[in-house]
Amino acid sequence: MSRPEMPSPETLRVVVDISDQRMVVLWDHHPIHDWPVSTARAGKWTPRGTFTPQVLVRMHYSTIYDNAPMPWSIFFRGNYAIHGTEQVSRLGTPASAGCIRLAPENARVLFRAVQAVGKGNVTIVVKD
Question: I need a surface site. Which of 40, 42, 72, 77 has the fewest CB within 10 A?
Fold first, then answer.
């Protein structure tokens, strides 16, 4: 895979703000992306805290939610992942079953950035 068009990083920090339904990506402490996301809808839950990516899956199909496609999945806590969604019109609002959804092109950019720096150099922060 080709390396993202960015300077060679030391760290990648992904900050998800549940209240704002936004994700900011910092490359060596410099913001490089600010994207809308969808997190858990009413009655569901998105984990809060600080995480390291566990597994990267180019195309995952949910075994829990009717084989829903989850492109560019970055699993960070059990079945919870950051991934692309077909429901881009819902980004910016709580709409998921708990995962953090992104536009597919943004999920691809993030996935490749995580690959480039290595999972151990990535911190995912999910906050209220």
Answer: 42
pLDDT of residue 110: 98
99 in catalytic set: yes
pTM of the predicted protein model: 0.91
When divided into structural domains, the chain yields a total of 1
CATH number (domain holding residue 79): 2.40.440.10
Residue 34 has pLDDT above 70, yes or no: yes
On whether residue 77 sits in a domain, the answer given is yes
Q: Which has the minimum average pLDDT: 5-19, 41-55, 66-80?
A: 5-19
Residue 6, domain member (yes or no): no
Tell me whether residue 7 is in a domain.
no
Residue 93 pLDDT grade (very low, low, confident, very high; cuts 50, 70, 90) = very high
Centroid of chain to Cα 58:
13
Annotation says 30 is catalytic: no
- Across the chain, how many H-helices and E-strands are there? 1, 9
Domain containing 75 equals: 12-127
